[in-house]
Amino acid sequence: MKPLKPIPDWDDSEKPTLPGGASMPWHPPHRRAAYAAIAVLVALTGGLGNALISANLPLITGQMGLQATEASWLVAAYLMVNVSANLLVFKFRQEYGLLLFAEIGLGVYAALAVLHLFVGSLTTTLLVRAGSGFAGAACTTLGVLYMLQALPRKYVGQMLVVGMSLSMLATPVAWLISSGLLDRGEWQNLYMFEAGLALCAFAAVVLLKLPPGVQIKAFERTDFLTFALLAPGLALIVVVLNQGFLRWWFDTPWLGWVLACAVVLLAAGLCIEQQRRNPLVQVRWLLGPTMLRFIIGAFLIRFLTNEQNYGMVTMMRTLGMGPDQMAPLFGVILCGVLVGIAISALTFGPKALIPQLSASIILLGSAAFLDQHRTSMDRPMDFALSQFLAAVGSGMFMGPLMLIGIQRALARGLDHIVSFVVILSLTQNFASLAGSALLGSYQLHREHVYSTELVSHINAADPQVAQRLQQQQQSYARLITDPVQLRAQGNAALAAVAKREANVRAFNDVFALSGWIAIAFLSWLLLEVTLRDPRVQHVIRRKKAATSSNRGSP
Question: What is the pTM of this model?
Answer without folding.
Answer: 0.84
